[in-house]
Predict the structure.
Amino acid sequence: MAALTQQEQVLGLFSNIDDPEVACKFLHAYLAPGALKIPFELCTRILSKDPAVHETVKEAHRLQNVEALDKICVYIQRNAWRFQPHLEDMNQLLMGISSNGKINLVANGEWRRPFWTPPKSLSDDSHAESETTAYIESLHIPLGNPNKEIPLIILHELGSFQYNVKLRNRLDRIFSPSSHTFLVNTSGEWDDFRWCSDTGSFNDPEDHRRYVSQFMPVTFASSVTGQALIDRMWYWLRGRHRYTASFLAVLLHSNFTSPHTLLEAKSLATIIGIHRLVPRVFLNGHLAQPK
């Protein structure tokens, strides 16, 4: 007969763990053979602060389900840091978020922010304005803040990376199934962690053109004005995604009124927050690509 493992021996020592204190002793003993030693006080804190863990441990113990208990141990080893006393406020916040059900709604695509609606412009062409407004509303761009009425371009079609080959490849390059990933402003590797700052950028003019064009009515995007604007947007806004997203938010808010004026130096610097980086190259007071 094969010798019992230490975990199996621990299972035999505890016939009932309904009592929280007994459950803590069982869990601490079951975790003991692992590479990461969890103090008994921390085990007690975890079960008292997260009753769901206690219930899961009790059910796995009742069924003598070693696989389920091993999964619980992995969860505790990965999340024990959250239950340190000095992180009490943060832990309460996380518990509140997970208990109100909103995370599940977001993950399942069932929760929607209010959609942004462009303000009424002062244009004399009411027909063109209504067409533009209808198109923008059809995009269902989330509203940033009900008080400020900011279109959150960055959240448009959030989670759709898997439907775009280039974006999916970029995501796969960042998150590897063989290692943990920290997204930081540096690169390198340490132990089993891979440090990654390569989150991508607008570095291809056609990709940039496709992205910005989706926010423009077809009649505008195909017009001389629209094509010129797209070219200028690539020249001045390529690189970080937020530059393009910030400018698009202002462009939509203006209902495409005087779009090239928005690329005037002072406006552009304020919109994307790069005052020191905007070169002093003008054409009739507007930023223009030097010849």
User: Anything to note?
Assistant: Strands lie at 180-183, 188-190, 193-196, 282-283, 286-287. The two ends are 85 Å apart (CA to CA). The chain has two domains: 6-86, 114-291.
